Automatic annotation (TrEMBL):
Keywords: Membrane, Repeat, Transmembrane, Transmembrane helix, Transport, Vacuole. It is found in: Vacuole membrane. It comes from Protea cynaroides. Pfam families: MIP. NCBIfam families: MIP. This is Uncharacterized protein. It is a multi-pass membrane protein. GO terms for molecular function: water channel activity. One of its GO terms (cellular component) is vacuolar membrane. The keyword Transmembrane applies. Belongs to the MIP/aquaporin (TC 1.A.8) family. TIP (TC 1.A.8.10) subfamily.
């Protein structure tokens, strides 16, 4: 059995029709997720104008993100793998499950999808600035960073366990649901402290369109570290060394 390894990818992979379709799928899936997720935050801001979001409002935001991510992953699952998140893509990259070439295109598609979703939200809401994420008063930057690392670790670990692990069996059918649920649960846990991003694209789109950059670095560094830890742990410790190993880059016979 060949050893697990990082793969750069073939030079002509970027122009292959299947790769182009997968990149477009990541753009659309991320757009769906960010539009619904950030839209739920803007809607609550409209309802609870100038007042803190209530506990029921927090549940509504978590539910909106969970349902939107469930759909976003499901519609992209058979085309691109339904990453919808640069951190998830990085977690699969360090595990050798996706090539570096494809990861670069996925990252671009995810970020652009998030920006387009945020722009359209601003247009649809008559100029409301996207809120994005920020660290709550009384919560330190270090606390928020560790929180993002832990929550993203749980997310990427769930992705590996339900969608990647060769022993997952019929569990793979509910992978989109499980991924959506862990994000919803993490928002209920971490939302009051730092918004619970777990997704650099989800943070970047609203930050760019809304001009809200305070503590923005946390929503990149935290998720990326958490994703790398989860990817390496699951790939090299949890999955048996004799298990079949495949990655998403196209097989040679597809060219």
């Amino acid at each position: 059995m060949p050893a697990r390894r990082f793969t750069f990818g073939r030079a002509d992979e970027a122009t292959h029709p299947d790769h182009i379709r997968a990149t477009i799928s990541e753009f659309i899936s991320t757009f769906i997720f960010v539009f619904a997720g950030e839209g739920s935050v803007l809607a609550l801001g409209q309802i609870y104008r100038d007042t803190p979001i209530t506990a029921s409002g927090q549940v509504a935001v978590a539910l909106a993100h969970a349902l939107a991510l469930f759909v976003a992953v499901a519609v992209g699952y058979n085309i691109s793998g339904g990453h919808v998140n640069p951190a998830v893509t990085l977690g699969l990259l360090v595990g050798g499950r996706i090539s570096f070439v494809r990861a670069i295109f996925f990252w671009i598609a995810q970020l652009v999808g998030a920006v387009v979703a945020s722009l359209l939200l601003k247009l649809c809401t008559h100029g409301m600035r996207p809120v994005g994420f920020s660290v709550a008063h009384g919560v330190g930057e270090g606390n928020a960073l560790v929180l993002e690392i832990i929550m993203t670790f749980g997310l990427v670990y769930t992705v590996y366990a339900t969608a990647i692990d060769p022993k997952r069996g019929s569990l793979g059918i509910i992978a989109p649901l499980a991924i959506g649920l862990i994000v919803g649960a993490n928002i209920l846990t971490g939302g009051p402290f730092d918004g619970a991003s777990m997704n650099p694209a989800r943070a970047f789109g609203p930050a760019l369109v809304g001009g809200r950059w305070k503590n923005h670095w946390i929503y990149w560094v935290g998720p990326l570290i958490g994703a790398v830890i989860a990817g390496l742990l699951y790939e090299y410790v949890i999955i048996p060394t004799e298990a079949p190993h495949t990655h998403q880059p196209l097989a040679p016979e597809d060219y």
